[in-house]
Write a structure and sequence with these properties.
26% helix; 8 strands; alpha+beta
C-alpha cells in the first residue's frame, strides 16, 4: 500500500525517527483540501510513544478541520535542523514522513491533557499554560494521527 523508500541506505532506524519526532516541535500537515487541491499547513506536534500517535491542537473550525472531516487520510512531514560534519561542505538533514488517519478529539478533558503535553514541549511557565488552557479549551479541538506508515531518512545535500 505504501511505497518503499527508494534510497534505502539513507533510511533512519525507528529509534532515529522517534528522536526526530520528539525533538522537533513543528512539521507540515497535509490534507486533501478544497476542490481536490492539497493543503499543507505548518503545525506543532506531540509524539506519544505509548500510543504511537501524533497529537495536535488548534481552533475547532477552519480549512484543516473541514478537510479532516471530509477525508481523514493525511500525511505529516517533519525535518530536523541541518548540520555539517567537520571537513564536509555539504549539509545533512534528517526528515520523517508519516501517513495515517486523523481522528478528532472533542472531549474536553482529553483536549486539556493533549494541550498540556503539546505546551510542555516549549519553555512556557506552567501557570501560563494552565491559564491559556482554561481560557481557550472550549474553542480548542485536538486531533491525533493514527500512524499507518512512518519512515525517515538522512539526506546529504551534496
Amino acid at each position: 500500500m505504501f511505497r518503499k523508500m527508494r534510497r534505502s541506505p539513507q533510511a533512519l532506524t525507528r529509534e532515529e525517527i522517534v528522536e526526530v519526532l520528539k525533538k522537533e516541535t513543528r512539521g507540515v500537515l497535509s490534507v486533501q483540501g478544497d476542490d481536490g487541491y492539497p493543503y499543507g499547513v505548518p503545525i506543532n506536534h506531540y509524539y506519544d510513544e505509548e500510543t504511537n500517535k501524533l497529537y495536535f491542537h488548534g481552533a475547532n473550525f477552519g480549512h484543516r478541520v473541514d478537510a479532516i472531516k471530509r477525508d481523514p487520510k493525511v500525511s505529516y512531514c517533519v525535518f530536523g535542523q541541518d548540520y555539517q560534519k567537520e571537513g564536509d561542505w555539504a549539509k545533512y538533514v534528517k526528515s520523517v514522513i508519516i501517513f495515517g488517519k486523523a481522528e478528532l478529539i472533542e472531549e474536553q478533558e482529553e483536549i486539556k491533557k493533549w494541550s498540556r503535553k503539546l505546551c510542555n514541549k516549549f519553555p512556557c511557565p506552567p501557570e501560563y499554560v494552565e491559564a491559556e488552557i482554561e481560557k481557550d479549551a472550549a474553542r480548542t479541538l485536538c486531533f491525533s494521527i493514527a500512524i499507518e506508515d512512518m519512515n525517515g531518512k538522512l539526506v546529504h545535500e551534496a
